[in-house]
Write a structure and sequence with these properties.
Layout: E1 2-7, E2 27-28, E3 31-32, H1 33-43, E4 48-53, H2 57-64, E5 73-78, H3 85-91, H4 93-96, E6 101-105, E7 108-110, H5 115-124, E8 128-134, E9 142-146, E10 152-157, E11 166-174, H6 177-184, H7 195-204, E12 209-213, E13 218-220, H8 224-235, E14 241-242, E15 245-246, E16 251-253, E17 256-258, E18 263-265, E19 268-270, E20 273-275, E21 280-282, E22 285-286, E23 290-292, E24 297-299, E25 302-304, E26 307-308, E27 313-315, E28 320-321, E29 324-325, E30 330-331
Parallel strand pairs: 1-4, 1-6, 4-5, 8-12, 14-17, 15-18, 16-19, 17-20, 18-21, 19-22, 20-23, 21-24, 22-25, 23-26, 24-27, 25-28, 26-29, 27-30
Antiparallel strand pairs: 2-3, 6-11, 7-13, 8-11, 9-10
Length: 355
């Protein structure tokens, strides 16, 4: 069995972070989201992984390399434009051959991995198995319709009037019949080859398509709110580990991981928190559900429920919360000028200013 991991796409909902970095590489608990998926694939006993990449392909290649440190062998498959999930299967035909495979969206996160699902697929050998979960707003997802016996009878991509609240999770298991399906469909109204249409083709042609509704934690980390929530979920399971230097004037409370090479001086840290190697925390408060990446500097500041990417600094700021701070960012107090705000903002930025 092989795996096809989708790591293309422009990540428009994560701008401006994704103007300079692949959305799949934004870290959760200081590890890229993509790595969690690759590790789950390796834990399921799958080692041959094709990674579909787009404009951020160089970043993905640099981060993953040959895949060996994540337990897989990576083959990169360029996709010249994001033309749909079924298009990714189409261009990966040579890599996949006639093997069964799991297709995993690289910005998705599933607690508990996929080993049990892969084992069941290997034992039962249906033509396809989809994963479903109940969501409050199905209009943003592919949606499945089931009959009274729980069989899949219909699929629709981002419907305006959903027929159920069961959304497709970004993990699919396929046998070789999917290749005829992706060759047999045309572009949707969005101009893409939709995997939902390909699976519907299988259903219409009496293929064996099965569904599993998962009750565990799943997130599509496509926007900042979801990314912070996934970070919170992962940090819930972090173990206390203090390998960095912490002075006597500091207080470490709860499950806090301080990596080797990090320093904490005169600060209060309340877990769950992770602090990366080379980070310097001084005279500050780091609150729960915060990830501070390597080589960051936080001084005389307060921050909680946030993600700070590498090489950034926060100095003299009274409170930062529910924030995603990119790489090489400087956060400082604004100058005390009367009734004025001075802003230097990139394209597609969002700013909230108190009146």
């Amino acid at each position: 069995m092989k795996a096809l991991v989708l790591a293309g796409g422009s990540g428009t909902r994560m701008r401006p972070i994704t103007h300079t970095s692949a959305k799949q590489l934004v870290p959760v608990a200081n590890k890229p989201v993509l790595f969690y998926g690759l590790e789950a694939i390796a834990q399921a006993g799958i080692t041959e992984v094709g990674i579909v990449v787009g404009d951020t392909g160089d970043d993905i290649r640099e981060a993953v390399g040959d895949g060996s440190r994540l337990g897989v062998r990576a083959t990169y498959i360029p996709q010249h434009a994001p033309l749909g999930l079924a298009h990714a299967v189409l261009i990966a035909r040579e890599f996949l051959g006639d093997d069964d495979f799991v297709m995993y969206l690289g910005d998705n996160f599933i607690v508990g991995g996929i080993s049990a699902l892969v084992d069941a697929f290997r034992a039962e050998r249906p033509d396809a198995r989809i994963l479903l979960t109940q969501v409050p707003d199905p209009t943003s997802f592919g949606v499945a319709e089931l009959d009274a016996e729980g069989r899949v009878i219909g699929l629709e991509e981002k419907p305006s009037r959903p027929k159920s609240d069961l959304a497709l999770v970004g993990v699919y298991l396929f046998g070789p019949a999917i290749h005829e399906a992706v060759r047999s469909i045309g572009p949707s109204r969005r101009g893409e080859l939709e995997i939902t249409q390909a699976i519907q083709w299988l259903i219409d042609n009496r293929s064996d398509v099965r569904a599993t509704t998962i009750a565990g934690y799943w997130k599509d980390t496509g926007d900042v709110v979801d990314m912070l929530e996934v970070n919170r979920s992962v940090l819930e399971a972090v173990d206390r580990s203090v390998l960095g230097r912490v002075d006597e004037a500091s207080e470490i409370i709860g499950r806090v991981r301080i990596d080797a090479g990090a320093q904490v001086r005169g600060s209060r840290i309340v877990g769950p928190v992770v602090i990366g190697s080379g980070a310097m925390i001084s005279g500050s408060y780091i609150g729960p559900f915060t990830s501070v990446s390597e080589n960051c500097r936080i001084s005389d500041s307060e921050i909680e429920y946030s993600i700070v990417l590498r090489d950034s600094s926060i100095t003299g700021v009274s409170r930062v919360q529910a924030s995603l701070i990119g790489r090489n960012v400087e956060v400082t107090p604004a100058p005390r000028t009367p009734s004025a705000h001075r802003l230097v903002l990139g394209d597609h930025s969002k700013v909230q200013i108190s009146p």
